[in-house]
Design brief:
The protein has one domain: CheA-289, Domain 4 (OB fold (Dihydrolipoamide Acetyltransferase, E2P), Beta Barrel). By secondary structure, it is mainly beta. A hairpin with a 2-residue loop joins strand 1 and strand 2. It contains 2 helices and 11 strands; from the N terminus they run H-E-E-E-E-E-E-E-E-E-E-E-H.
């Protein structure tokens, strides 16, 4: 045990104020939030973990005839049909080179009884990061309208996705 560590007994009649005094001053920490960071194409993206339902391996897809190019297809996730969108479609993926994962996001809806689920194609899931408010940058590149800012992590930047904007830019089928 470290020599700096000492247990100090408190009297039996100690109250909450005595306990707080024994603990010492509390350090102020900025509020933290968690983000799931993933790569789609050459770009890193992230979503708040509260918007991410789960990450699954690439599923068996059903293609939709005459669907937009970014709509890869739909898949069954435990009885729920989920549309799958490739947000890296502008990069022109090579044929036969499919992403490996799907980030299933859930958009909380006030008008519908159920949340809206959407799958986002991901080549790599980098991880979940706890970040402070100073790690979030409010500006996003103008050519990425579905993003509302950037997240600084591991000396890299990830674009923060806004699910509502993403559904405006990449409208998928309402299932």
């Amino acid at each position: 045990m470290s020599e700096d560590f000492h247990l100090v007994p408190l009297p039996a009649d100690a109250d909450t104020a005595d306990l707080l005094e024994a603990l010492g001053p509390m350090e102020e920490r900025p509020p933290e939030s968690q983000y799931c960071v993933f790569r789609s194409g050459r770009e890193r993206f992230c979503l708040p973990v509260l918007d991410v339902e789960e990450v699954v391996d690439w599923p068996l897809l059903t293609k939709l005839p005459l669907g937009p190019a970014y709509l890869v297809g739909i898949f069954n996730l435990r009885g729920a049909i989920v549309p799958l969108i490739d947000i890296a479609i502008t990069e022109g993926r090579r044929p036969g080179l499919l992403p490996k994962y799907v980030v299933v996001a859930s958009l909380h809806s006030e008008t519908h009884h159920d949340d809206i689920r959407i799958g986002i194609a991901a080549d790599e899931v980098i991880g979940t990061y706890s970040v402070n408010t100073e790690d979030l940058l409010e500006q996003a590149p103008e050519n990425v309208p579905h993003c509302i800012g950037m997240l600084r992590h591991d000396d890299r930047l990830a674009l923060v996705i806004d699910l509502r904007r993403m559904l405006e830019v990449f409208p998928g089928p309402s299932i």
